[in-house]
């Protein structure tokens, strides 16, 4: 009987969700998760930029996104839903938005059908956490 209970506990732990890894403080992500997120960000790069010369494409640049109020970067034409949102981006809600933006902020204009797992969305957030705040000129649309 005791062996059966221990086996169930072990199996339950093996099936846990990776969402526990998503809600890390920005500096706590492993280098492997950050690198995985950098590679996955290629899926986002058609619409978003990060880095010293980042600007807006179809979506706003994502430098310094964590801790920022949703819909607040100047120079980008956000949807009314995002502008009206009171959400401040943290690791958990940004990962959820990456997974299903319409569920987090209904009526927003981001459409991303990538079928990412919770782990992959968390990896992207870990990478974005390494992309600091904006620099002068970064809040301008791309020419």
Automatic annotation (TrEMBL):
Record carries keyword Metal-binding: yes
Domain Cytochrome c: 32-132
Alphabetical UniProt keywords: Electron transport, Heme, Iron, Metal-binding, Transport
InterPro entries in the cross-refs: Cyt_c-like_dom, Cyt_c-like_dom_sf, Cyt_c_1A/1B
GO molecular function: electron transfer activity; heme binding; metal ion binding
Keyword Electron transport listed: yes
UniProt superkingdom: Bacteria
Protein's UniProt name: Cytochrome c family protein
UniProt lineage: Bacteria, Pseudomonadati, Pseudomonadota, Betaproteobacteria, Burkholderiales
């Amino acid at each position: 009987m005791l062996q059966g209970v221990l086996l169930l506990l072990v199996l339950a732990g093996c099936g846990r969700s990776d969402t526990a890894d998503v809600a890390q403080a920005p500096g706590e992500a492993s280098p492997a998760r950050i690198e995985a997120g950098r590679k996955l960000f290629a899926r986002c790069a058609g619409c978003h930029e990060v880095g010293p010369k980042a600007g807006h494409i179809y979506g706003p640049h994502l430098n310094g996104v964590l801790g920022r109020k949703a819909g607040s970067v100047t120079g980008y034409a956000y949807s009314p839903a995002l502008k009206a949102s009171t959400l401040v981006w943290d690791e958990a809600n940004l990962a959820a938005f990456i997974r299903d933006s319409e569920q987090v902020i209904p009526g927003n204009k981001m459409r991303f059908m990538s079928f990412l797992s919770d782990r992959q969305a968390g990896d992207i957030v870990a990478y974005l956490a390494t992309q600091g705040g904006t620099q002068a000129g970064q809040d301008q649309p791309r020419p």
